[in-house]
Structures are given as structure tokens and as C-alpha cells.
Amino acid sequence: MRMRPTLSWTPSGDLPPAITDPEPVAEALSAGGVLVLSGAGISTESGIPDYRGEGGSLSRHTPMTYQDFTAAAQARRRYWARSHLGWRTFGRARPNAGHRAVAAFGRHGMLSGVITQNVDGLHQAAGSEDVVELHGSLDRVVCLSCGDVSARRVLAERLEEANPGFDPVAAGINPDGDADLTDDQVGDFRVVPCAVCGGILKPDVVFFGEAVPPARVAHCRALVREAATLLVLGSSLTVMSGLRFVRQAAEAGKPVLVVNLAPTRGDVHAEARVALPLGPALTAVAGRLGVSPEGADSRVG
Question: Which residues contact 283 (CB under 8 A, 6 or more apart)?
């Protein structure tokens, strides 16, 4: 029996209490050398729901796993139908105040880097540079046979041509860009092959049950070693892909700060968790530091 990836975490009763004053974040940023680790919670104010917060998509949606995607053509048909529809909404999302604040902190030399678990490209659209996309990006598509990487917009055009009139109404959109559709709505949606070799196409993202590329993990670990503080923004840290960097920072004696409304799996390693919405919290921090969060605001890809 194939093991399913860990998708949930239940907080224990002995977690440290949260605070509602973001001053520790402002102090860390003023000292510099802050490494940001962001999760789906930073994009909710852009209209992209998170996985586990109030109304999170896991309450109605089980993300596609790598094992299911590669095992069956029907699973790929269902995925690409839902993803193609979701891309229309997902691709229109714009950076919010949280993304803009992070970009501003970077412009003022307060950050040592940004690692994001998100696949939406909104940090870059807000103006952040050298962002490490831990789980990849929906802007790219990769062939599982020949390794060719192409732009998602090109695939979207091919899927439009192969499926004229495909325009069902989705029940919702998810953090991975997957729209909620029934099997009847998916119907006989046509999946297109790699234009180079005819192989299977997959979004250039790390699915649940798939490992983050080792070189990318090593790069992130190096960023943690070089940072003065690790600042977690909008992540429950349920899965190990992000939690390992919190544990690494804590083991090295580096301060860990978390801004997230709900308790996280990393709270036991954090000096403080600020329980505030990301946009207002980071905007307030920017104000205290005299940093303007206004700047670039364009969609990449």
C-alpha cells in the first residue's frame, strides 16, 4: 500500500502563546541579515487560498501527488483540466501588501534572501530578486521524458486549441493552481504531449509525495547558515520541506520568528509567533522602519 504524504498537523496544548505586536520582526529587520521563508498564507490576500487556514483548500481538496500523476493517464487528464481552468484565475493574481513589503525590505538591504514554498511567482512580481522557489513555479512546464522546459503560457494556448469551448464553472481555486471540478466537468478533456518528443508534460512544481531537488535544498541550507535570523511568513510548516530549515536555524542558535495567524509546527523553535494577517503586519513593520512598501507590481511570465 502506497503511503500518502503528510497533509495535516494537529497543534499540541503546550505551544508557546502568540503575540500581536510585530516589534520583534521590526527589530530583526533593522539589524539586517534576515532570511524570509514564505508560505501560502502570504498569498491569500491576492485571492489565492492557503491549504490549512480558515477555509483552506485541504478541507475540500486533496492535492495531486506525483505518484498518482505519473501512474495514470486519467489522473493526468483530470489534473490538466483542473489546472488549465485554474491557471486563468491564478495567472491574473497580483502581489499584495505582504509581497510588496518583503520586496521593500530587500531593496533596503534588510534581507539576506527569500525562500518561498509558493508556486505563484508573486514575490518576483512585487520586485523581490533572487527568490528561491522551493517547490518550483507554475509559470513553467517540464517534459518527464526529455526534460525540455517551456513556458506555461505556451501550453495554455495549446490546451485552448485542443479543447475549444472548455469553460466549466469551478467551485474554487487552490494554492497549487488547481481548480475544483467534478469528473463530469472534466469530461473528455484532451491533454497535449511534449512538443519536442511527445512525452508527458508536468508543471515544473514539486507535487506532494515528490522530493525537492537536492541541489535546491543544499542552496537553501546554505542561505540558512549565512542568515542572522529566519523569518517565516504565512506557513503552517506542516510539511518537512519548510520545517527542516526552521529546525536547522534553531539548532544553529539563530533566532526564528513566525508571522502566521494559526499555530505552526515550528512554533516550538521560534522566539515568537506574531498572530496577525500578513499584509497589515508587514505594512506596520515597514512603517516603523520608515520603508515604503510601494514598488514593482507586475505579473511575471
Answer: 97, 98, 101, 293
> How far is it, in rounded angstroms, from Cα 3 to Cα 177?
24
Residue 217 or residue 13, greater confidence:
217
Asked if 135 is an active-site residue, the reply is: yes
Report percent pLDDT > 90 for the chain: 71
Tell me the pTM. 0.88
Catalytic residue among 84, 123, 135, 269: 135
Q: What are the beta bridge partners of residue 266? A: none
Task: Tell me the pLDDT tens digit for each residue of 219-271.
Answer: 999 999 999 999 999 999 998 999 999 999 999 999 999 999 999 999 999 99
